[in-house]
Write a structure and sequence with these properties.
With 599 residues, the protein is an alpha+beta fold. 37% of the residues lie in helices and 23% in strands. The protein has twelve helices and 25 strands. The chain has helices at residues 2-12, 36-42, 322-332, 347-351, 358-364, 368-409, 414-419, 435-438, 451-466, 479-501, 504-536, 541-598, and strands at residues 28-34, 51-57, 75-78, 84-85, 87-93, 98-104, 116-121, 138-142, 161-162, 165-167, 175-179, 184-186, 194-195, 200-208, 214-220, 225-230, 233-239, 245-249, 259-267, 270-275, 278-284, 289-290, 294-296, 307-316, 339-346. The strands form five sheets. Strands 8, 10, 11, 14, 19, 20, 21 and 24 form an eight-stranded antiparallel β-sheet that branches. Helix 9 (451-466) runs antiparallel to helix 10. The longest helix has 58 residues, at 541-598. The two termini are 78 Å apart. 40% of the residues are buried.
């Protein structure tokens, strides 16, 4: 549908300007901005090597099916709509509608008036981008997003042994699960050299699943460098050139079940430990190089195993500064995401200078389940409107013809009826009817739409069954006969009321069922939104708001069904009550005249 709309708009707008469009072959783009307020709160800013983690899910992106197969048409462009940015896809699941993409930020984005990048998609013919992300200075990177642990860099520092179990509960997609006996062993290589002259860093996300007294996280060589958890605290232990052991700890205890970001760096003689973006401890050492195999989750003796999850294990050949560490923690973490996701736009949207349509933006985020509910509500609304219009026309006609009949009937008096006789009407097809009936002969067909007339006719037929057939016979009715006539008229009245109230139940269904059906759609939409956010780990209002707003659209649809149906039901009900009252009054008046005439 969006592609069809785009084609029509291009045909109708041949002079469309693509000044703010990177490439006309791409149908759509999405605005992604850095949150300046959140950046100020973290006290950090993106440097020249900064990488953004773009998290897409149903809460901020509704067009996974518009992306080409394998996400080959994804492109990321700087705010100038010209400079293409390198990126790498860690996960793109169009079926479950979630994606994790690492994007190299423009070098000057920190000083830009509007720190923004654009994500382009919607080109089925596109080939995979050649602008794939290669992070300078990174010697090892394990995302743990697949079943096999593998190095995501070109250094191919794959583990020599990995017994850790894959887990889907990572802070960023998957993670490695350790049970105290599992480990990852990485063989020494030239790219994994840790030299104080160039600087180095080891970083990871870590979560303890139980209190740990003494557990190894990372060990280099034969224990010359050891990062462990002791008594719920991170502890760094190293051996200097004189084989003296030195230790420092993080100071504050770790929380079981919480994710923590750990970075260990060395620049010159200074080693520093950062926990959750903050400097936790530091020491000075004369060790200028660490070598040997790298062991994760166990020590060299196979003891002191770590129990918990580990994600995004990274080694770099440089030492990032505190600002870069704070930015990485804020960008990757679950606390205060730094990216704001704007609306998705096509070329005509980009060229338009009007204000954005919030209703359109909300509807664009409605999930498939929501559209199914809205479709059911639309059918319910059409049915209720058909009932209200049809019933309104019928009731108006009945009310008018009832008024005409009552006007004619009230002109009859007892004296006029006594003067009538059946002999004067021998040629009339109603000659066998009572004088009350004959009083309105010559125009019965004009009352056929009157419900009171039909009740009246039932009464007349009941009278005819009780009149003597002989001419000149004295006509007298007992009280029981009069009551029998009333019963016949009451039966006809009930049938008329049933006819008047027919299909009104459809309005009550719309009134009571519409809001509940809309609420069902809202609950489903909110569940999907929060489930996606739980998987993606993005918990700011900008991730939640679009999905919740779209979910609430079904409740609005339910109210749009129920409110008109409620007004129509009350109005039609009051008109039916008026007609019912007229029929009851007429029955009483008619029976009274019968009793007066034939008593």
């Amino acid at each position: 549908m969006r592609i069809f709309a785009l084609v029509i708009s291009i045909l109708l707008m041949p002079s469309l300007s693509f000044a703010d469009w990177w490439n006309a072959d791409w149908a759509y783009k999405k605005k992604i901005s850095l949150d300046k307020v959140a950046l100020q709160q973290t006290g950090s800013s993106p440097d020249a090597k900064a990488v953004a983690l773009v998290r897409l899910h149903t809460g901020n992106f509704s067009y996974f099916l518009d992306v080409a197969e394998g996400a080959a048409d994804l492109r990321f462009v700087a705010g100038d709509h010209v400079t293409e940015l390198a990126y790498s896809i860690e996960k793109f699941d169009a079926i479950n509608e979630m994606a994790l993409i690492w994007v190299k930020l423009p070098e000057n984005i920190a000083i830009a008036e509007e720190p923004v990048i654009w994500m382009y998609y919607g080109n089925p013919q596109a080939m995979a981008s050649q602008m794939m992300l290669t992070r300078d200075g990174i010697s090892l990177l394990y995302h743990f997003s697949g079943s096999d642990v593998a190095d995501a860099t070109t250094n191919a520092n794959h583990p020599a042994l990995s017994t850790a179990s894959p887990s889907s509960a990572g802070v960023i997609a998957g993670a490695a699960q350790f049970d105290g006996t599992q480990s990852i062993a990485i063989t020494e290589s030239a790219s994994l050299m840790m030299s104080a002259d160039t600087g180095w860093a080891i970083s990871m996300w870590l979560r303890m699943d139980q209190p740990l007294v003494d557990a190894v996280v990372v060990q280099r060589g034969n224990g010359s460098l050891l990062l462990a958890i002791k008594e719920q605290k991170f502890q760094l232990t190293l051996m200097d050139s004189a084989e003296q052991v030195h230790s420092i700890d993080s100071g504050s205890e770790l929380v079981v079940g919480n994710w923590h970001h750990i970075v260990l760096t060395q620049s010159g003689p200074t080693m520093a430990l950062y926990v959750d973006g903050q400097s936790a401890a530091s020491m000075t050492t004369d060790v200028t190089r660490f070598s040997g195999d790298l062991l994760v989750g166990l020590d060299a003796e196979g003891s002191k195993g770590f129990v918990g999850l580990l994600d995004e294990l990274t080694m770099t050949g440089f030492a990032p500064d505190e600002n870069a560490i704070k930015f990485a923690y804020a960008m990757q973490g679950l606390g205060t995401p730094l990216l704001l996701y704007g609306e998705d736009m096509s070329e005509e949207d980009s060229d338009s200078s009007g204000e954005p349509s919030y209703i359109q933006a909300t509807l664009e985020n409605v999930s498939t389940d929501g559209w199914m509910v809205i479709g059911a509500l639309t059918i319910m609304m059409l049915v209720s409107w058909m009932v209200m219009v049809g019933k309104g026309i019928v009731i108006a006609k009945i009310h008018k013809e009832n008024a005409n009949f009552i006007e004619e009937f009230e002109k009859l008096g007892v004296s006029e009826m006594e003067k009538l006789n059946r002999e004067d009407n021998e040629d009339d097809e109603d000659a066998m009817e009572s004088p009350l009936m004959l009083s309105l002969t010559g125009g019965h067909e004009k009352f056929q739409g009157s419900s009171i007339y039909r009740v009246y006719h039932a009464g007349v037929e009941a009278i005819n069954h009780r009149l003597p057939k002989a001419v000149g016979a004295d006509v007298v009715m007992s009280a029981q006969s009069v009551e029998a006539i009333r019963a016949s008229m009451d039966a006809s009245l009930v049938r008329e009321l049933q006819r008047l109230n027919s299909q009104m139940v459809l309005l009550t269904i719309a009134i009571s069922g519409g809001p509940f059906l809309g609420l069902l759609g809202t609950v489903l939409g909110v569940m999907i939104t929060f489930a996606a956010i739980a998987v993606q780990g993005e918990v700011d209002v900008n991730a939640i708001a679009p999905g919740v707003a779209a979910a609430l659209a079904t409740t609005v649809a339910g109210l749009m069904v129920a409110i008109p149906a409620l007004f129509g039901y009350n109005y039609l009900g009051s008109r039916i009550k008026e007609i019912s009252a007229d029929m009851y009054v007429f029955v009483d008046e008619f029976v009274a005249k019968v009793a007066e005439r034939y008593s």
